[in-house]
Amino acid sequence: MKLINFSLISVLVILTFYLLIVGQDILQPVVIALVFWYLINLVANSYGRLKVGDKVLPSGLCFTLSLLSFIAMFWAAVKLISMNVDGVLEVAPIYQVNLEVKMNGLLSYFGIQEAPTLGQLIELINLGQFISAAAGSLTSIVANSGIILIYLTFLFIEQKNMDKKLSALIADEDKEQRVRKILQKISNDVRKYVSIKLIASLSAGTLSYIFMMVIGVDFAAFWALLIFLLNFIPTIGSIVATIFPALIALVQFDTLGPFFLVAGGLTGIQILIGNILEPKFTGRSLNLSPTIILLNLSLWGLIWGIPGMFLCVPFLVISMIVFSHLPQTRTIAILLSSDGRISDLEEEA
């Protein structure tokens, strides 16, 4: 019997990942819409806990404030990115000169007499292929944005009937209560993860911005925004977020001192936030194995690219909770956990 269950679970897992790969163009916008739907409702609930005198804010006003908050954040991010693109175009000639000087010095150090020019190096790159790929990616993003907005709109329209549908789907009252507890557990743990990552990423971005402003790195606000966003990707995100500002420091300044200073300083901030403060905030709230998180990150990155990397931990949290409350998959939940202890819903009630 156990062998049959194991075989069925294995087939189900393989089939699930096959569908995720084949149906990526359809499923990815749906999942992203679900994420935004959850986050907007999460912020709306936070507004709902605010009091004006002895009264709480109306639910409609909370939803409106949450939606306006997200629109304002997206507008600010787009504005910041567009401003920095213009800035990069202005300083590009200076960066080119500094890069050529450093390249010539490096090649001379290794005894290469005739150093290739930057133009010759650029000619080696297939610009046509690069532009086509970039245009394709941009077209895909714009197209998916429209689809995501449509899905998001219908999710908001449908959400008022979700409780009724759940009650209609499950006739047994005890089973319905158990399903509701599982859904509440999923919501609570995902909220904990989002809150912890938000605090950690905001702290890393703010400290990095102050540090880069002191050093004088160009476009410090943009790099701080990038650090904030990439810190939501476990481990790899913080590494990539440190590399880009360090490379800018390499081509911006005439000496190598600022490059090493920026690389060392930003790495120190990431270690402080990621290895000391964030684990202290997290504690056992998620109880996920770090090794499993890294494997999960690689898997979702392979399947769905960057969106998959952002979503890998929430997916893992949901999977672990569902597995822990099904007798057939409880063993898998134990393997996913950090310490092997799986709590029951009754213990948390």
UniProtKB/TrEMBL annotation:
InterPro entries per the UniProt record, alphabetical: AI-2E-like
Spans through the membrane: 5-21, 27-44, 56-78, 130-157, 194-215, 221-251, 258-277, 297-323
Membrane topology: Multi-pass membrane protein
Major localisation: membrane
Biological process according to GO: transmembrane transport
This protein's UniProt keywords: Membrane, Transmembrane, Transmembrane helix
One Gene Ontology CC term in the entry: membrane
Pfam families linked to this entry: AI-2E_transport
Domain of life: Bacteria
Localization per record: Membrane
PANTHER family, sorted: AI-2 TRANSPORT PROTEIN TQSA, TRANSMEMBRANE PROTEIN
Family to which the UniProt record says this protein belongs: Belongs to the autoinducer-2 exporter (AI-2E) (TC 2.A.86) family.
Protein name: Permease
Organism: SAR86 cluster bacterium
